[in-house]
Amino acid sequence: MALTLPPGPLSGSPGTTNYTLDGPAHRILLTSVAKRLRVVLAGQDGPVTVVDTTDAVLLHETGLLPRYYVPAGDVRDELLQPSGTSSHCPFKGDATYETVVVGGRTVEDLLFRYAHPLAPLGELGELVGLQLEKLDPEGGDAVLEEEHALLGHPHDPFHRVDSLPSSRHVRVLHRAAPDAAPVVLADTTAPIGVFETSMAARWYLPIEDVRTDLLRGSATTTVCPYKGVSTYHSLVDGPEDIAWGYEEPLPEAMPLPGHLCFDGEGISVEVDGRVL
User: Phi/psi at 219 (nearest 5 deg)?
Assistant: First the structure.
């Protein structure tokens, strides 16, 4: 994300520089990964490891999230069946896809290969791409980095998240209509600022400084590969999912339990009197 989305150097809109980048507007970068990577699928008779490697590669591509590729020799070929799927990438070449069959389960097009990649990406010919979005984590599938189960897409090693306690004055207001009087939903001088590469700063407010009587629970959850699983709150008789928090965060977001962040219809956030 840091490299391939604005203002990263491999994005379509790099930040201000005193240099130019020669080459195509669509850029691709391969970086090696030191972590052991395993892809484990849940089968009828228990988990089955389909991929086990210590030589994974991350492919970074302009405008896209990073994707794992692994050496072909670290994939269990006996579990694979060719599928009729194919695709063409004007920057990488023609890809063919393979389905994984394990323990009575079929996972369509989990793997893909560029048998004859375009120059100068010849290295791709020895690698297998992973469509990890095809997996079912709730059903028992897992992507393990060492012994840690990956949430969402692979981490970009150039992406950073800083969660910093602050003394800035942060207020959250809601207007039911443009001409309506604002209602203060939260007011604190002890927020946590979350500063994440390529993202706008986010402000998380202590729950004790939030008008929780104006909120109701929501069944919505989302996954951030860097912060964890978030749960949401909606306004009573108002817009859905305008506040969220991380009660069991990943290490990058450890200060966030007991705090809520706000955004959505009619919401404005003031930091030291300035509306963001």
Answer: -85, -5
Q: How much helix, strand and coil, in percent to the nearest 5, is found in the chain?
A: 10, 45, 45
Q: Are 205 and 259 in contact, with CB atoms under 8 Å apart?
A: yes
Structure tokens at 166: 């602050």
d(CA 117, CA 120): 8
Residue from 248, 206, 214, 254 nearest 234 by CA: 214
pTM score: 0.84
Count of beta carbons in the 10 Å neighbourhood of residue 260: 26
Determine the average pLDDT of the residues in 212-236.
96
- Residue 5 pLDDT class (50, 70, 90 cuts): confident
Task: Kindly compute the dihedral angle of the four CA atoms of residues 236, 203, 267, 208, in this order, to the nearest 10 degrees.
Answer: 30
Q: How many CB atoms lie within 10 A of CB 184?
A: 12
Q: Does residue 12 sit in helix, strand or coil? A: coil
The whole-chain average pLDDT of the chain stands at 94
Query: What structural domains does the chain harbor?
Result: 28-149 (2.170.150.40), 161-275 (2.170.150.40)
In the β-sheet with 46-53, what is the strand arrangement from edge to edge? 46-53, 37-43, 142-145, 148-149
Of residues 94 and 4, which shows the higher confidence score? 94
118 and 95 Cβ atoms separated by less than 8 Å: no
Question: Which tens digits make up the pLDDT trace of 182-191?
Answer: 999 999 999 9
Contacts of residue 201, defined as CB under 8 A and 6 or more positions apart, other chains included, come to 193, 194, 195, 276
